[in-house]
């Protein structure tokens, strides 16, 4: 076996150009003269993959032969972003690529732009999975990411004339995907439906239909580690491609029904949505990838063994359940052990409970998955039996442990009542070896509120692992200017592997020369973003204004409404002359957000933001002072332009609702200051960067709870703050809907009568902090000092640190030797 790829590849630019020419010829079948940038992209990607191949094979071999336990990260989402730049960086081929592509007569930027971004995730949860597999590989930990290769990722967002969100299918596989290697020989059968019968005293599942799970493998190269892990995404295909008999009767549509049914399973990524539609399909997806992945792990670690000793399974691999989506894997492993390998219940339970760990990513009760017993029984009858047995066992244990009958009842995994259901978070909390939240505050609230009974009974299970982000993509690739400056300041580029080294930048915050260089980098990034926004969206953005950004899924708890109401109030202040135009700090307020297609109020908020933008941006009275831009279809690529350019980052969720947030970390690491509430990881960011370098406002978790308890009346706040009243009145009276008072009536009515996330209650505090922000912004040297202090103290938020915490607290494993 060949050695691991050297960190810096020894290939020359000329050699790499030859490799690209070769791929153009033998893979694409075009000459360099005929080639388009997209051809060069595919050729370069194919060449890079070949460079990684030896390390990939060696990593797999070491994993199987070695005795380091591997990690299987089971996730319904992996929001990877574009691959080429990352693969070049991690294989040490960036410079060769640049030179080679130019030698071939192409613009490197155009070539990398030709890659279509796979959007196989909704937001933070999926991006976290992508950051984690990057860090696992970079730390040399043997790992698989396991998920689904959706044919359609998150929808492509457009805005119509009225500013409403339109969802278009994201068919990301129309063009060649040079990264995914489809491996027909490593397929798995996944079955559904049917019944369970008694045969020779055994329960035997007779499923009624099956699909073929085919793995598509993506290489996950580590940074400077020489290791390349695997992201294995399953594609669903039919075993019965085609019913020839039916076809010959000219019933063409019926003939392809089995194929359509099977392929539907990996057809689309579900939006994080509360609607009922397609629940069944969603459970099919979850079981599909959980089952295929567990079988795959057995195949990998016990090659060619008919009767493997699966009592050693937990020493080979542990599975991380990324939220409740793969939790059906728990009864699936039980079923495999009991039915396929003939283990007794206790042995199977012992193996299973050592294999799984569960991460919870939310505090919203409606986001904790619950499946009706009837649905599981129909799709997975044997699993339902097993879940019932797990529930019985649990109830029995509980009765031994406590006399509190109400508590035992509360903790049921399988509820009774009108619609008996299975609570997946409870199943995972009982069967999982460890349970973790994703930021200190969130983990505490899980223990105190959401999973309190479980944490009371199993205190040792519960732990925290604060999220992190990969500095490779979100600093080195996204912000080369800042990366170079940091390397210059520290005298080393080792910080990309050990982000705590950023701490040594702190003294440079007092060095005016350094601060000026830092400010220049920020300004260059603003210009870069403005150019990008002009090119891609046609926006005119003035780079001398403050870039004030809010990017995240559109959700009421995140409170985009708070931001837009403040914008409207400021607009009204200027219009009425209450604020003198020369006293206004010019701002460009930038939003990026997708709303779940079925989420009515979220979509209406998008429409409102667009129309506020339309009115304000066309009003000569505020021209040059206030502008709102909303680039549609926010994705990783947009993030990579926007985050480095941002000066003020909005993290303004209602305290106690945002589990962690990860863009907050990306912003701090890229030298933005945060305005935020004491929520999620904001708390830890503020602790680290210092209260003086963070704009805090708003109610705390305790204050929020008290307000719920006392009865919250939003109308009171509307009456009390004339600015707030003016802003809401403008929306109600049609200022942003051509005089139509109905357009936003549902939104206005919700604010005034319900306002579940207390936007109105926090409005005044949010406004009050603005003058502090503007005063500081007026002193650019001070502002940038604070921004540098943010960068210097955010090294903790590297996903490498998160993974190290998982290794120590949850997985109990480490890098390959
Ligand atoms: C799901 C649902 C489904 C029902 C309707 C409402 C709703 C709202 C949110 C969700 C998503 C929950 C899972 C999730 O994406 N959590 C995010 O995970 C990130 C990574 O840990 C974390 O930074 C974010 O704070 C958290 O929202």
Attribute tags:
single chain, 817 residues, alpha/beta, Rossmann fold, 3 domains, six-stranded parallel β-sheet, 34 helices, 48% helix, globular
Q: Could you characterize what this model shows?
A:
By secondary structure, the protein is an alpha/beta fold. It has three domains: 1-67 and 85-116, no CATH class; 72-82 and 120-276, Glycogen Phosphorylase B (Rossmann fold, 3-Layer(aba) Sandwich), CATH 3.40.50.2000; 471-798, 3-Layer(aba) Sandwich (Rossmann fold), CATH 3.40.50. Helix content is 48%, strand content 13%. It has 34 helices and 22 strands. It is globular and about 85 Å long. It catalyses: [(1->4)-alpha-D-glucosyl](n) + phosphate = [(1->4)-alpha-D-glucosyl](n-1) + alpha-D-glucose 1-phosphate. This is Alpha-1,4 glucan phosphorylase. Allosteric enzyme that catalyzes the rate-limiting step in glycogen catabolism, the phosphorolytic cleavage of glycogen to produce glucose-1-phosphate, and plays a central role in maintaining cellular and organismal glucose homeostasis. Its EC number is 2.4.1.1.
What name does CATH use for the topology of the largest domain?
Rossmann fold
The helix count comes to 34
Please state the average pLDDT score.
Answer: 96
Q: What's the domain count? A: 3
Q: How many E strands? A: 22
Percent strand equals 5-15%
Under CATH, the homologous superfamily of the largest domain reads Glycogen Phosphorylase B
Sequence stretches where pLDDT stays below 50 over 5 or more residues: 1-6
Gross morphology is globular
Q: Helix proportion of residues, in percent?
A: 40-55%
Report the span from N to C terminus. Answer: 16 Å
Task: Classify the secondary structure makeup into a structural class.
Answer: alpha/beta
- Could you describe the largest sheet, including whether it forms a barrel? 10 strands, mixed
Radius of gyration: 27 Å
CATH class of the largest domain: Alpha Beta
Ligands in the model, by name, code or SMILES, are:
ligand 26V
CATH architecture of the largest domain: 3-Layer(aba) Sandwich
EC number: 2.4.1.1
Function: Allosteric enzyme that catalyzes the rate-limiting step in glycogen catabolism, the phosphorolytic cleavage of glycogen to produce glucose-1-phosphate, and plays a central role in maintaining cellular and organismal glucose homeostasis.
Keywords: Carbohydrate metabolism, Glycosyltransferase, Pyridoxal phosphate, Transferase
Protein name: Alpha-1,4 glucan phosphorylase
């Amino acid at each position: 076996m060949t050695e691991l790829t050297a960190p810096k590849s020894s290939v020359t630019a000329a050699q790499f150009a030859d490799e690209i020419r070769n791929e153009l010829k033998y893979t694409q079948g075009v000459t360099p003269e005929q080639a388009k940038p997209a051809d060069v992209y595919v050729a370069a990607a194919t060449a890079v993959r070949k460079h990684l191949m030896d390390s990939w094979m060696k990593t797999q071999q070491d994993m199987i032969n070695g005795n380091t336990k591997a990690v299987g990260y089971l996730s319904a989402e992996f929001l990877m972003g574009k691959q080429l730049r990352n693969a070049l960086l991690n294989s040490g081929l960036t410079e060769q690529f640049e030179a080679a592509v130019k030698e071939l007569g192409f613009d490197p930027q155009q070539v990398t732009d030709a890659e279509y971004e796979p959007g196989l995730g909704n937001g933070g949860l999926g991006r976290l999975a992508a950051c984690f597999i990057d860090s696992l590989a970079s730390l040399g930990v043997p790992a698989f990411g396991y998920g689904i290769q959706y044919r359609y990722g998150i929808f492509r967002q457009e805005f119509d004339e009225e500013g409403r969100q339109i969802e278009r299918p994201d068919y990301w596989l129309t063009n060649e995907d040079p990264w995914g290697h489809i491996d027909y020989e490593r397929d798995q059968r996944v079955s559904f439906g049917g019944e369970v019968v008694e045969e020779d005293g055994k329960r035997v599942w007779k499923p009624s239909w099956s699909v073929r799970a085919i793995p598509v493998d993506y290489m996950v190269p580590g940074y400077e580690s020489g290791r390349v892990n695997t992201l294995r995404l399953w594609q669903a295909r039919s075993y019965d491609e085609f019913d020839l008999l039916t076809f010959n009767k000219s019933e063409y549509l019926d003939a392809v029904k089995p194929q359509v049914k099977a392929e539907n399973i990996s057809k689309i990524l579900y939006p994080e949505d509360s609607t009922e539609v397609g629940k069944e399909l969603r459970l099919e997806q979850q079981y599909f990838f959980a089952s295929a992945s567990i079988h795959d792990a057995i195949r990998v670690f016990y090659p060619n063994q008919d009767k493997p000793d699966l009592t050693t399974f937990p020493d080979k691999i542990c599975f991380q359940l990324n939220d409740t989506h793969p939790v059906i894997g728990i009864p699936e492993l039980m079923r495999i052990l009991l039915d396929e390998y003939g283990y007794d219940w206790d042995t199977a339970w012992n193996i299973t409970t050592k294999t799984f760990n569960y991460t919870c990513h939310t505090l919203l009760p409606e986001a904790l998955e619950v499946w009706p017993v009837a649905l599981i029984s129909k799709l997975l009858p044997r699993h339902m039996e097993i879940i019932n047995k797990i529930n019985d066992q649990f109830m029995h244990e509980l009765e031994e442990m406590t006399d509190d009958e109400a508590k035992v009842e509360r903790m049921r995994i399988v509820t009774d009542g009108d619609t008996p259901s299975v609570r997946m978070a409870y199943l995972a909390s009982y069967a999982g070896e460890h349970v973790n939240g994703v930021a200190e505050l969130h983990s505490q609230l899980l223990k105190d509120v959401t999973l309190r009974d479980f944490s009371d009974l199993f205190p040792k299970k519960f732990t925290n692992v604060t999220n992190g982000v990969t500095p490779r993509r979100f600093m080195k690739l996204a912000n080369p200017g800042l990366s170079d400056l940091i390397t210059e300041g520290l005298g080393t580029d080792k910080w990309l592997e050990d982000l705590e080294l950023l701490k040594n930048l702190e003294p440079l915050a007092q060095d005016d020369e350094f601060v000026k260089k830092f400010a220049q980098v920020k300004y260059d990034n603003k210009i870069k973003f403005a150019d990008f926004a002009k090119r891609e969206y046609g926006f005119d953005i003035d780079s001398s204004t403050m870039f004030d950004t809010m990017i995240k899924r559109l959700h009421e708890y995140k409170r985009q409404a708070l931001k837009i109401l403040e914008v409207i109030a400021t607009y009204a202040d200027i219009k009425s002359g209450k604020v003198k135009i020369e006293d206004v700090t010019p701002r460009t307020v930038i939003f990026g957000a997708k709303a779940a297609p079925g989420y009515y109020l979220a979509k209406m908020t998008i429409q409102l933001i667009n129309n506020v933008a339309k009115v304000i941006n066309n009003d000569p009275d505020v021209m040059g002072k206030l502008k709102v831009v909303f680039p549609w279809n926010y994705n990783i690529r947009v993030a990579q332009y926007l985050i480095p350019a941002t000066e003020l980052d909005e993290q303004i969720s209602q305290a106690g609702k945002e589990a962690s947030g990860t863009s907050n970390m990306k912003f701090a690491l890229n030298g933005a200051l945060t305005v935020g509430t004491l929520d999620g990881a904001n708390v830890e960011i503020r602790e680290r960067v210092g209260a003086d370098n963070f704009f805090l406002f708003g109610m705390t978790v305790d204050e929020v709870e008290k307000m719920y308890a006392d009865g919250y009346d939003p109308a009171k706040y509307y009456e009390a703050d004339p600015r707030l009243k003016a802003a809401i009145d403008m929306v109600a009276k049609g200022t942003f809907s051509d005089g139509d008072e109905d357009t936003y009536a549902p939104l206005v009515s919700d604010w005034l009568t319900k306002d579940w996330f207390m936007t109105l209650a926090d409005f005044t505090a949010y406004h009050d902090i603005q003058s502090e922000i503007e005063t500081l912004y007026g002193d650019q040297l001070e502002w940038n000092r604070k921004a540098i202090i943010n960068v210097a103290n955010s090294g903790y938020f590297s996903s490498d640190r998160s993974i190290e915490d998982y290794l120590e607290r949850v997985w109990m494993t480490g890098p390959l030797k």
